[in-house]
């Protein structure tokens, strides 16, 4: 059976666990003599004094959520011990997350939730709910990420005096999540509410919110409004230099997209080429820009620019989508060996990741190119890749077997009809 400790005994345990001496937590009418009397059970610990001591301790601990001391901790030993156990669990899970090896079972989550609810540990709720949100984002379950972000945000409001930046970060993540899931109206409402609370925001945070507002308008194809907001955000050179290039690059990239959508393709390309010169060529943004520019130059048949771009791409950073675009580009440049190298890479990546949508897209484009250029002999290679894919993806067996049949029979009409039918099915 659990033996309850006195408030004085718990104060001593919590103080020592926090690495603090009696003299460290004096101040605000709290003397070392009073602390000594309480810890030795010679005077009671009332709630007002407990609150002052907790405040002194939290200030010394930099208001750390994992080391947070609550007034109620001094009165319930089981509560404090539960917090210590949860801290150990959190540290392990956080380390696993940082190492990229985090895996959480439903039973683990339920056990943590049970302990959090038992004593309403709001400080620990923020930590765990944010960690759970991180985990679900890492496995692309955005609905569950949102569920835990909302809960972390709700509990963080009680600590907003000490954790304004964390509260803003959670708000920003909620906005991003809503935008990614196309909840545009909800995201705009949250953005406006947050902007209206401007006394709690610094200039960088406010301007970031306007970027999200621009993104939301781009999502609903209101490109003129998006351009207007981004022009305002980027007009102050001194501001965006202090904010950092990453933010500026995000704004500039979105601006180029909006210009392209409004028909100003030349202006969009100019922005992208300029942006490409100032970012890390190995970054995810650079790879996205290469994909986009290759597609634009290919469509406009600008052979010189296309050849230069294709030669700049570093092979070790090529993903399946960029490999697909490089295949199409090298086919246009009539460099079939390089084209087939990237075709193989695109198919391999799609196959390894069981990405049916990408696999189908590459196969379809490839078949069309080989048929149009009278390279039917190369369809044998494609047929072998399709057969490999079917083994891992039996749900698509019938569809791909039809493709194989039409290839074998050289039935181009049926093949074309099948592609047209499947365009909105896969």
Automatic annotation (TrEMBL):
CDD domains the record matches: HTH_XRE (cd00093)
Single annotated GO MF: DNA binding
Domain of life: Bacteria
Membrane-spanning segments: none
Name of the protein this chain belongs to: HTH cro/C1-type domain-containing protein
